[in-house]
């Protein structure tokens, strides 16, 4: 008996034939189709090979990179040049990497004022160029004198971020809080902590991000990104996980599948930028990394 006549003469076979030829709704009813979520890769300026913006952007497009993350000062200083070089490309500015002077938790009013003015100048440019937001850290460990790590300081931070978030929103962009590892910024280390500060800032213009390098402190990549959720997760940074070089250069530890699973479940519509050094040849490492990340994205 061949397979076809076997199917016809058994109950299981009859059901299988009915299902195979049945309406699509029968099949999708049993196995809900996962939405297809794109992996939007982005490069910071130093990651892209090339001298001019045109060379860098040509190179990025050849790898299928769709986002560009300039530094804040760079964006302000070279705005026209960047905007012109981006014209007609399948490449948009993703987030803006800091670049402001001073810091928001500075005890010295002059340093705080410097933060306020320079950050707003970057926000203006970010909004104008259609960026998803400007990345900031409330205070690095080395920035002193800094307001003490107390509940009053947290309340002050939320109030200040509320104002800044509303300003960013009025310019069509956002501020994006970046949690760092404890060696760099003890104040805000976990994605969930950044997300809670977003919530308590009570502004739609205050968002947060995850950086796979700093996320070594998290107990779970999946849990960390899910804790920010659709409401707060606005950007992601990626690097290798042992030396902060190009993803893949640290071998097996460069596994991002659990984090990618969270991003897919969140239908994350923003960008993931390379923020990393390089142990070998930048061109080869980037090409291999893009391939690796696309494979892991499929796997997630
Ligand atoms: Mg980062």
Please indicate the percent range of residues in DSSP E strands (runs of 2 or more): 5-15%
**Alpha carbon gap, first and last residue:** 41 Å
CATH superfamily of the largest domain: Divalent-metal-dependent TIM barrel enzymes
Assembly level: single chain
The largest sheet, given as strand count, sense and whether it forms a barrel, is: 9 strands, parallel
Order of helices and strands: HHHEHEHHEEHEHEHEHEHEH
The tally of strands reads 9
Q: What is the compact description of this entry?
A:
With 300 residues, this protein is of the alpha/beta class. It folds into two domains: 1-31; 36-299, Divalent-metal-dependent TIM barrel enzymes (TIM Barrel), CATH 3.20.20.150. The protein has twelve helices and nine strands.
Helix/strand layout:
Blueprint: H1 3-8, H2 11-21, H3 24-30, E1 41-44, H4 53-62, E2 67-69, H5 72-77, H6 79-86, E3 92-93, E4 95-97, H7 109-129, E5 133-136, H8 151-170, E6 175-177, H9 191-201, E7 206-211, H10 221-232, E8 233-238, H11 257-265, E9 271-274, H12 282-299
Parallel strand pairs: 1-2, 1-9, 2-3, 4-5, 5-6, 6-7, 7-8, 8-9
Helix pairs in contact: 8-9, 9-10, 10-11
Bound molecules: magnesium ion.
Tell me about this structure.
With about 300 residues, the chain is an alpha/beta fold. The chain has 2 domains: about 1-30; about 35-300, Alpha-Beta Barrel (TIM Barrel), CATH 3.20.20.150. Helix content is about 45%, strand content about 10%. The chain has 12 helices and 9 strands. Strands 3-2-1-9-8-7-6-5-4 form a 9-stranded parallel β-sheet. The chain starts with a helix and ends with a helix. Magnesium ion (MG) binds near residues 211, 237 and 275. Magnesium ion binds near residues 178 and 275.
